[in-house]
Fold these 2 entries.
Entry 1:
Amino acid sequence: MDTFRKYIHADQSDQKQQPDWGINVLDVGHSIHPINTVYPDSKHPEGYFFEWDKGRVLAEYQLVYIASGTGVFEAEKLGRVDIQPGTLFFLYPRIWHRFKPDADTGWTEYWVGFEGSYANHLMKQECFNPERPLIQMGFNAEFINIFIQLIDTIRFGGPGSNQLAACLTIQLLGLVYASALLKAQSNSRKTQLINNIKYSIHENLNTNISPEELAAKHNVSYAWFRKAFKEITGKSPGQYQLNLKIQKAGKMLKETDLSIAEVAFQNGFESEYYFSRIFKSKMLLSPSKYRNNS
């Protein structure tokens, strides 16, 4: 698909003669930005062009989809974020932002700018948040096809083109909304499953149940379990399990008269020597010194 962009004036006469659907498409485009070239190019009109050092503030919403290439994105209240292919981001009215492709990859982008009463309503939905403007869409054939239809509608014009463009923009937002909801539900299920496994770890601290056995017990692969567990807790399953055992052992050393060997055994350690070595590496004191240290 060729590069195309059009900036539509809100006061066009044909727009005034057509019914208001609550979304007014202001600009739309598809750009293939080559490697090692200045971004953005100078063909954008005043109010849209920006210099990287200064960034930009728009008076409208924009939906920007990066189909290929990599780059960076920054916005108010959001640090610098790496952009991968398939990333979609929203630009919100009156919020500072800037973005650009990596010089050695360039990128291909689609965008649509819009405003209106229904646009304001849609963009207040929970999954559209100016503090979290990025959504990983990946490759979505339906999404791309609708974007191409939107561009062709604006490119060729004709009766009702503005309203058809509004309808297509609503479809794009609907697909993004559905994608965000599915991701949220997936993350919720992931968190619930990891919490269930954490409970199993707590319940089996005095055994030698392995992370692989925990994964199998909950019908997930160990590779998925390890990645998801670390994503949610910040620790690997093995380290999380070991830290809990050491904490429990430390409490037993302080609050009971059990021997060090008995404490090691009750916490699933294979030997007193192994327990003592691990305990000292974690607590910086041997079990005996920890017990006697008030």
Entry 2:
Amino acid sequence: MTTQVTDHRGGVWSIAVPIPDNPLGHTLVHLLETDRGPVLIDTGWDDPDSWDTLVAGVAACGFALTDLHGVLITHHHPDHHGLSAKVREASGAWLAMHAADTAVVRRTRGATSDQWLDHLIARLAAAGAPDGHLAPLRTARATGGGRRMPGMRAALPDREIGPGELLDLPGRRLRAIWTPGHTPGHVCLHLEEEHPARRTRGFGRLFSGDHLLPGITPHIGLYEDPAGNSGEAADPLGDYLDSLERVGRLAPAEVLPAHQHAFTDAGGRVRTLLAHHEERLDRLRTLLSEPRTPWQLAMAMEWNRPWEQIPYGSRTIAVSEAEAHLRRLVKLGHAECVPGSGPVQYQAVDGGGGRA
């Protein structure tokens, strides 16, 4: 086992914790030294190799697990929150998360795997997924295969991360920035201290989780609810775009993301992502000149590979992303549901309020 640890100076380290069977490769778990002991930002996927890597990484930073003071979770996804329970049990450290993602964890823990599968099957069927895509999910429902779904027993946090809060970390100034979109309770954490390299452009360092990545556009899908509530009022893409602009105004000197690598010019990256989503929404309006289901729209959208080469699980994610973009177009008055369609279809609306 090779442990990749990077010293970012000024009491900040990153540990590359592997994600099994995932093209992302690893999650960058950050360690921040404080006067009460180190704090982790995220923990990584719940897997034996990931756990061994995290433990070895903390040791390579000069600490034992029992030295840990706390764990700050940027968001509830299993590649970030998966090992949190084991870290708390081994160290006695507290866990903290934004309330909106705590609510997701609570709903997930309260639902059975069958309820999750029922929710997923119903949502995909309503989106126009073909029987061939639904069949494996129905088989898993019938055979109990859903019990292996990650995150079903994710740890509930001990503390809440409040938007704008200057966190109680003696000797450090770390402020929570609520950045919903990737999840409803995603937070970035702004280290309001001079950069150790004394860079003149920007201020401080931003632990950006999955919100701002140097070469990847984060997945923005609909917020999931195993109870089957549609959450019609939620607009995840709108949330994400608003959050991006807020981070752009923050102008940190350096960004320390949870994947890939550290980078500068946060404002430039924000502008690139805003333009990407604006262009994508424009292309989707063109595609919706004829009625399409979310599944049909996902098939017609541009991805990093042809639809035929997209793996099964990634197609489900792609449909959720198509639905989030549809939700945004509907909110803006640029698209509407086709009355009486089932599975539901959408079509573009022209500038005058009529159908395109």
